[in-house]
Amino acid sequence: MKYRKEKDSIGYVKVPADKYWAAQTQRSMENFKIGGQKMPIEVIRAYAILKRAAANTNADLKVYQKQKRNSLAKFAMKF
Question: In this structure, are residues 56 and 28 in contact, taking their beta carbons and an 8 Å threshold?
């Protein structure tokens, strides 16, 4: 298995290269019985709705272009 080095306030830790998490999550995985549960789809959908609303607001305020809003909204609709 390939690893990468991640650093936090404690120091460096080896994280599997195929994982997206960083040092603190890796330490938790090693020291506590976590990781078997998945995020409920309802929570993921709620975050998608929130992200879509933020994208619409930022486009209305001209913080970024409508094309970016449309991309974010399209992605959020997958959930």
Answer: no
